[in-house]
Task: structure prediction
Amino acid sequence: MEMKNLFVPEVYNEIRNRLDQLSENTERQWGKMTHGQMLRHCQGPFNIMLEKNDYGMKPNWFAKVFFKKSLYNDKLWRKGLPTAKFLKETEARDFAKEKTQLETLLSEFEGARERNDWKPHPGFGEFTKEQWGKMQYKHLDHHLRQFGL
Result:
């Protein structure tokens, strides 16, 4: 199966519908993050892409060589995959606030659908528009599956 691209309207709508189904009562299937922590964590890649926060990341040749392609290829990430330190959430997070903030970032992402001039990722370097879209889908899909959605 080819990895879906969040820039595709039907795929974007699928993710929004799955996110709409998430509640504080949705049962976690794996991992340690709470619902609120997961929602906050999922904001990170959008903040990077939309140039809101680079989290102090520096170019990383090791990540570019050994991990970059796994961000957008067709292979699903395994359950319990370690979280990048700068995106690790350990503080309590308010579910409703974090869900609203992620929905806002998703709307900003959708509003940028026609944009083609994306800046390089601060840690991984250049991505094509298609790779950005696949990467965003893959990350959200992973965490929605974490909560059975």
Remarks:
- The mean pLDDT is 94.
- The chain is about 45% helix and 0% strand.
